[in-house]
């Protein structure tokens, strides 16, 4: 499924849907929506799941949800121990500071309740009678519920009819058919949650969401479905879930309310917002979303930047080929795949054999690959060497003539080896897989050794060591690519890893009296270049430095 033909703009959305994003807003009972400084540009609600074992604890969570900026809460009755329906619902519904969805999820739909079904439905009827804004009922029993509701005292609640698929995400046709079945029950709001096996699964949900004639919650669960939760407003979703705390979620993959509001500028996402992101695997450690989202906001650029957990670069680019998906950073292990998927490649990136940035050219939609990695890293290393040799009067690069040992032969390794050669260094490539070290060394006229050989590698003193392997990166911070005792032969050590900032390698280098340069320098310098490519505007350098300092 390709989403190049989706109606992404507001104008075209209203051509395809009876209920455009704006129209859908009138259907909400939420009257006091929070607004951000930049102004709210969408009507998608942030819903905080309230999951606690006691009513008191639920009230505390509701207050926190309100303070955090949620619009609505979902009271999960199935989490309550010793639930006394009338008494507890009176308290929860009447004291909720926000509009409430009441959900009593049974085990057979992924919830906690495994008691009597008619008692469960009775509690939901009661919630409606007491004044809940929304009731969530599962598709499997929706007809039964609707039949019985005719006999009970009507409440004001709107009915969300929900369907959860914990295995996969079906085809567009199947999701659309499910929407029709849910609509046929008389639902006020359709809710479909599926499971992401691949990042491209969210595209099918977007396609259905954007065409939906009824208010719809369409979310794809799991880490690979994160994009469906954050971009929900772009496609007119009724709500997205935001947890109160990281990891305390009612379904896998939920971001926190704070992340939605502060990191992803959720209120400012509109149907024409341009989508950017970092393509990698793993990618959740990346600081780039912090960096670019803050920078976009500071200059008023209508863009969002996401972590994109991608298995196949080609599948991702083919699926998200719409003109609104416009720019990507590339990280491990996709820098070479990114180059292979580029329509045109910057000459430097071609020599290095990897890209770290890709832009969709607005005029013809062609994908252009760049490599900015080496610029930032080499400049930072040169600066470090100059600081070491303050008394020496060096003209030209202080790397000229130095022995530069590059650990790693992946994307970053290629950038550093190429950059070092350009500056006149003699390059040695040390890699776990010797064949890759040999291939890179031959390109830069250098020598190849294995990583293990570095322990006793000491042809001269004053060498420069750079780590471009992922050894020592979070969460395996205890690891290091080279024994500490070998570090004393180097004058300076640079580690491309920036998460954590202080790696074990850099800590041991300092303990050995060796100068160090942090990976954050490489990140920030290439970040300036990427920002300028994404936006066409000068990078807000101080702001980007401050954001990075706060997040490393
Ligand atoms: P990549 O293309 O996947 O290359 C990974 C390299 O790490 C390969 O040389 C690989 O060796 C080696 N490696 C992986 N696991 C290893 C292990 N257990 N033992 C020994 N060697 C191992 O990745 P990349 O894009 O070059 O990125 C590498 C690192 O640099 C990452 O930590 C990334 O975050 C960091 N980086 C930082 C910046 C920045 O701005 N500061 C920019 C780019 C990258 P084999 O060939 O044997 O598999």
Automatic annotation (TrEMBL):
<dbReference type="Pfam" id="PF18317">
    <property type="entry name" value="SDH_C"/>
</dbReference>
<dbReference type="InterPro" id="IPR013708">
    <property type="entry name" value="Shikimate_DH-bd_N"/>
</dbReference>
<dbReference type="InterPro" id="IPR046346">
    <property type="entry name" value="Aminoacid_DH-like_N_sf"/>
</dbReference>
<dbReference type="InterPro" id="IPR006151">
    <property type="entry name" value="Shikm_DH/Glu-tRNA_Rdtase"/>
</dbReference>
<dbReference type="Pfam" id="PF01488">
    <property type="entry name" value="Shikimate_DH"/>
</dbReference>
<dbReference type="InterPro" id="IPR041121">
    <property type="entry name" value="SDH_C"/>
</dbReference>
<dbReference type="Pfam" id="PF01487">
    <property type="entry name" value="DHquinase_I"/>
</dbReference>
<dbReference type="Pfam" id="PF08501">
    <property type="entry name" value="Shikimate_dh_N"/>
</dbReference>
<dbReference type="InterPro" id="IPR022893">
    <property type="entry name" value="Shikimate_DH_fam"/>
</dbReference>
<dbReference type="InterPro" id="IPR036291">
    <property type="entry name" value="NAD(P)-bd_dom_sf"/>
</dbReference>
<feature type="domain" description="SDH C-terminal">
    <location>
        <begin position="519"/>
        <end position="548"/>
    </location>
</feature>
<dbReference type="InterPro" id="IPR013785">
    <property type="entry name" value="Aldolase_TIM"/>
</dbReference>
<feature type="domain" description="Quinate/shikimate 5-dehydrogenase/glutamyl-tRNA reductase">
    <location>
        <begin position="398"/>
        <end position="470"/>
    </location>
</feature>
<feature type="domain" description="Shikimate dehydrogenase substrate binding N-terminal">
    <location>
        <begin position="278"/>
        <end position="357"/>
    </location>
</feature>
<protein>
    <submittedName>
        <fullName>Bifunctional 3-dehydroquinate dehydratase/shikimate dehydrogenase, chloroplastic isoform X1</fullName>
    </submittedName>
</protein>
<dbReference type="InterPro" id="IPR001381">
    <property type="entry name" value="DHquinase_I"/>
</dbReference>
